């Protein structure tokens, strides 16, 4: 139950109370339980208070070691249209006391009157309930959304309130158009045309990038059916190419507003703090805007790939585990995906092929079109995936590790309708990854210079110092490749740094070569060998 509907129930109960039944003793038209505060019985009093909250439908949920409640902020956009913004807030003592007072009638013994008299719930009751981490019986919450979504079984979640199957709370959903229970492929084709019309004027470099943009519009809507989804990144050759606008359109469909963007921090730790705040607030979309250069980091990789993430709330040193149902986006000019991010991101590339792309004129206003009739585009996204599920998921593409649900429901559905596989963009991102490029250059130069001979970090450095005139060119290439990954800042090779670098990529296969690690018991050193991969 939402906070607003809970408040309406309390107000309705007060209006319709009978003359012999005061409004303070009723909630939702029924008599509230009476709870007596008795000295020495706080554990039982707190248990009764929690039961009363659940019976009254208080909007309290368990998430990440805390009790939270969903909040809707009603704001108006530039045109005066109402927009509902959903977020989660942690329940503190005051809110707990407020709802305890709504859910039950409280009393305590008055020694002078020798009888129980009305009172307010005590702060001790609220603190006791809030302290029972691991014992709460409130429903578990994965996230808060304002858009109908798909459940894992393929059914549509469109009714406001808490959904046990997905552990999501749906607040203030827009009305959906009439949709067939079992849409056909023709219905899906029409729905795809509806979404494609929003992307007509964008300068995609290829059809795979267009497929990524279509996935960006669909994935947030059907996110409830997926454990995780890949990040959708939009890159361009110049500012003003429409990168953020694509994300804004996706956000307009799934949340009814422009994307709540954040910038990447100057350090990985700073970015992690910003991402943590977004996850704890239950944001349905987590867009990182204006990425300059490289995009990566351990926490971002975990956030994209894992349905549960460990986060450290600001001002604390405690890690808490929270579910994440967010869709991650990134925009930037000439984004370079680094290391493990390359397999977690589908990349949409734009190239307007002009000096000042911000002066381009769109033939329409796709963002305004979505805001004007948001249900139409939500229905289109749902129809595409529902039709594919109803058809039995024909010709399902090979699963993408960690993102099997997305690969089956969104990627395969797009290809089923004639779109290019959005996964093709991963190969481009991988080819442009500076980590992969450095490893490719190193392994190739290593093998060309020494074959599959076994080396230590020191001995491979020594190879580059040999004065064999027939090997000078090969040794030069190897030396440069080693300096690129283990520079001692004086133009030479730091063998300790080289050893640590090689240790990070032991067993890695790149460009047809594999780095094999071993240990020389006599020399008590780790050894390395580059061999051709089978």
Condensed summary:
The protein has 534 residues and is α/β, with parallel strands linked by helices. Helix content is 37%, strand content 22%. The protein is globular, with a radius of gyration of 29 Å.
Give a description of the structure.
The chain has 534 residues and is of the alpha/beta class. The chain has 17 helices and 23 strands. It has helices at 3-15, 42-55, 93-103, 123-130, 185-196, 207-218, 243-255, 268-280, 298-305, 366-372, 374-390, 404-416, 424-431, 434-450, 457-463, 472-486, 495-504; strands at residues 26-27, 30-31, 34-37, 61-63, 66-76, 82-90, 105-110, 115-119, 143-145, 149-150, 156-157, 161-163, 168-170, 231-236, 262-263, 285-295, 308-311, 320-323, 327-337, 345-350, 509-510, 513-520, 525-532. α2 (42-55) crosses α4 (123-130), α5 (185-196) packs antiparallel against α11 (374-390) and α14 runs antiparallel to α16 (472-486). The longest helix is centred in the C-terminal third of the chain and has 17 residues, at 374-390.
Features of the shown structure:
534 residues, alpha/beta, 3-stranded mixed β-sheet, 37% helix, 22% strand
How is the secondary structure organized here?
Blueprint: H1 3-15, E1 26-27, E2 30-31, E3 34-37, H2 42-55, E4 61-63, E5 66-76, E6 82-90, H3 93-103, E7 105-110, E8 115-119, H4 123-130, E9 143-145, E10 149-150, E11 156-157, E12 161-163, E13 168-170, H5 185-196, H6 207-218, E14 231-236, H7 243-255, E15 262-263, H8 268-280, E16 285-295, H9 298-305, E17 308-311, E18 320-323, E19 327-337, E20 345-350, H10 366-372, H11 374-390, H12 404-416, H13 424-431, H14 434-450, H15 457-463, H16 472-486, H17 495-504, E21 509-510, E22 513-520, E23 525-532
Parallel strand pairs: 3-7, 9-13, 14-19, 14-20, 15-16, 16-19
Antiparallel strand pairs: 1-2, 4-5, 5-6, 7-8, 10-11, 12-13, 17-18, 21-22, 22-23
